Amino acid sequence: MKKSERMQVLVNLSQRKEDEVAKALAKDQARLQHDQLKLQELKDYAAQYDQERNLLGLSPYLTTNYQHFVNRLQQAIQQQEQQVKRSQQQVSMAMKRWQNARAKTKGMDWLKDKSINEELNFENKQEQKQIDEFANRAFFERMRS
User: Fold this and answer.
1) CA distances from 131 to 37, 69, 122, 124 (A)
2) Which residues form a coiled coil (predicted)?
3) Cβ(102)–Cβ(18) below 8 Å
């Protein structure tokens, strides 16, 4: 088996690993989008709830209940903001893993191409050597005759 063929096996393995890392990255990006959407929905709900409260005249009892609800809603928003930050960190780490995997695949591919070029150069030199030997034999045969 030629060196370039062995290198192709390594390129294929590296490509599979890169594909796996890319799938994980896509999954993390989808999770981040979901978390961001959920955060935006919570913020929109809080803003809508605040607008409705301003339109209604609330009794002291309802104002207290409202304030408890708003506090819980703010806590939910803060928790979701933390989740978004964690998801962003996951995406960042997954992106770095993908970049490293991509660089490795490119490096393996470059080495394979280099091996192919070396093999072609060697084959060309061998072919040229055979042509030269044939030409020399033909020349010496003509000189003898």
Assistant:
1) 71, 91, 14, 10
2) 70-137
3) yes
Give the start-end residues of each E strand in the chain.
none
Q: Would the CA dihedral through 91, 93, 95, 101 be positive or negative? A: negative
Query: Domains in the chain, ordered, with CATH?
Result: 3-111 (1.10.287.1700)
Q: What is the pTM of this model?
A: 0.75
Give per-residue pLDDT as tens, 57-109: 666 666 777 778 889 999 999 999 999 999 999 999 999 999 999 999 999 99
Structure tokens at 3: 């060196």
- Chain-centroid distance, C-alpha 68: 43
Pair of tokens at residue 30: 């989808």
Which amino acid does the sequence have at 115?
S
